[in-house]
Every structure is written in C-alpha cells, then in structure tokens.
Design brief:
- This protein has about 400 residues and is an alpha/beta fold.
- The chain folds into two domains: about 20-260, Aspartate Aminotransferase, domain 2; about 265-400, Aspartate Aminotransferase, domain 1.
- About 40% of the residues lie in helices and about 15% in strands.
- It contains eleven helices and 14 strands.
- The strands form three sheets. It has a seven-stranded mixed β-sheet with strand order 1-9-8-5-4-2-3, with helices on both faces. Strands 10-12-14-13 form a four-stranded antiparallel β-sheet. Strands 7-6-11 form a three-stranded antiparallel β-sheet, with no helix packed on it.
- Helix 4 links the parallel strand 2 (about 85-90) and strand 3.
- Helix 2 (about 45-55) runs parallel beside helix 8 (about 255-285) and helix 8 (about 255-285) crosses helix 11 (about 380-400).
- It starts with 17 loop residues before the first helix and ends with a helix.
- About 45% of the residues are buried.
- The model has no long low-confidence stretch (mean pLDDT about 95).
Length: about 400
Amino acid sequence: MEKPVFTGSFTQQEPIPEAAIEAAVAVMRSGRLHRYNLVPDDVGEVSRLEEEFAAFTGAKYCLAVASGGYAMSCVLRALGVGAGDKVLSNGFTLAPVPGAIASVGAEPVFVETTEALTIDIDDLAGRARASGARVLLLSHMRGHICDMDRLMEVCDTLGVAVIEDCAHTMGAAWNGTPSGRHGLAACYSTQTYKHINSGEGGLIVSDDAELMARAIILSGSYMLYGRHTARPPVDTFENVKLKTPNVSGRMDHLRAAILRAQLADLPAQVDRWNALYATVETGLRNVPGLQIVERDPRERIVGSSIQFLLPGWEEARIRTLLAQCAARGVELKWFGAEEPVAFTSRYDSWKYAPEQKLPKTDAILAGLIDMRLPLTFSTDDAALIAGIIRDEVQGAIRHAAE
C-alpha cells in the first residue's frame, strides 16, 4: 500500500490580515514612514503599537525596534553591559542570542539544558558564582519556559539581572504571568516565523524608567523622545540623553501598521497553534524510541513549533529518519548536527564565544528534533504529519531490531 504523503509547506505563513494591509496602504499613501514624521496631533502607528503592546503584556513602557536581535543588544547596552563583561545564557538557543551578547563586546557564559529544553537553574547558579556574571539573557527557546518563580528567586539572591528573550513566547505565560514580565526587561521578535509578522521587527518592554529612557535614546530618538507615548516621564531622559549614543534601530510606521491588527488577533491565533500542537503531541505519544517533551502545567504555551527527543539514536539513523520523513513531505530539523544548517546551530558553532563544554546539553541536542507548525496547517494536516513521523520512527526501530 502506498504511504501517505504531506504536500503542504512548512515555511508558508498565513497572508497578512486585510485590516493590516489597509493600514499599511494608508501609511504608504501618506508618505510618512519614519516614526517621527508626523502631522500635528497624530501620535503615529509606532506609538500606537507600543501603547497596545504595553497593555497586552501589562508593562509600563514599550519600545518598537528594527528586529528582535537589535532589541536584545539594545537592552544589554542600556543596562551598561560592555567589553569583557560576562553574560549568562542558555546553551540551547539560536545564534541571535549569543550574537547580541557579542555585539556589545561581552562574553557569553552558556548554561546547561534540561530534558524539558529549559535552562538548568542549578547549573545557572553555579556558573553565575564561578563567572561573576551579573546579567542573564534568558532564552525561552522554542517556547519552553522554565520555573520562573524559582529562577527569579535564584537570580535575585545572586544579584543577577534577568533579560528575557521572548521571541518564541509572545502570548505565553508562566503561572498566570505573561512571558516577559518576570525579569527587568523583555525582548520580542516580529520576524516572519514568529507570532506576529512584519518580516523583521522587535519590541522591548520594561517597568524600569531609566533603562527604557536609555533604550529609546539608543534606538535613535535624537531629542524627539517626547513624542513617544509608552515612555517613561520626560524628566527621566535628562540624565541620559547626552550620555547615551545613538545606535539607530527604530521601527517605522509601515511595519507598525502591519503588526497592530495581528496583535489584536493574537489570542485567537494562540488557540489555533495550540490545537495543532496538541494534535501532533497526541499522535506522537507512546511511540517507542521517541520521547515527548513534557510541558509543565504552569505554562500557557504558544505551540508554533514542536520538539521531541530520540534518546540514544546514532547519527546515521537520525539522518535516515530525517530523509525518509522529508520524502513524505515532513520537514524536520535536527540540533545534533556538527555544522550549522539554515537557522539551526548549537553553542559550539559560535566561535566568537569562548570554548565551553556542556555535556548534558550535548546529550540532549544529539537527539533533539524540531518542527514548525505554521497556521496554514489544519488539525487534519497535523494528524497526518504525526502519523508519518510515527510510521517512520516505528520503521526505524523495527529495522534496528532486525
């Protein structure tokens, strides 16, 4: 009997909503794309987006910027991180996170990963003490959120400031608190494969007035910071405006207009992602040789991707599985490859960071498989995809036993 094949695309996103297209066209017709190019009495699309995202997260202040990577480097600079400083971060993350640390001249100190794909808090405490690092750039990698209550207790005790990378957790929460609201500041991405899509873009939120005043000046506000409406009080800028460099990375009105309608739709989109995630997870549960990544019930997830583990599988068998799934239309990514592939790399790929050894993380990445779940999929698609993976894993297990 011929095996079923999936014919959809793992990189095809949904169209931009009509309301967002109309708002973008209005901006283009105005010719006023720069965030500070405004008519009197109009705060502009960027400021409106900042107001709405601050309300969405419950933060006091918000700044829209050019990318998620810029958001992270901007917050690090605003916090005073610079050359030679050590910054803690996840051993399991993507290149823009250590890249942001390196961009300000600092050194990444990588922390071990648990089987839940979250930062190992015990290892974090040990590496913070050993390195003297006073900042953690915490990546909620692929949407997996650690025990944030315990993490903050440990970091507060050690005097470590927490910056959250929420590129994969916009709309998620830990124990009822929105992701990004535990640390000093949080950074989000609006790149195409994230939860709202402007091609590129980023957002910063914080309740710290001086940090956000520095971030606004850094982003290239010149002396126009008073036009921001989700900013700290104007007098906060007096101590920082002439001491903080302009490292331009503003968002423009066109991207902000595209994002505002999507932000309004995000809660409904989260429900759709989570239905896809639950369908795939159910289809893969109890498959011999395949380990589900169990989610903590205190997490409210955004299931825009799913991961599973193949414990003890050798490289050749994993590569065969990836090829067989690809032949049936299912695109899987593997974090165990020695060389980076497309967006996928691992901590020992980043040669700008000092060489470090994370044996626990190595063992997890060796069998870690990752798959996108775009909203162009239906739950029937998700069930078919899970069935294909299940069939191929079971086939590989049978072949190994022969």
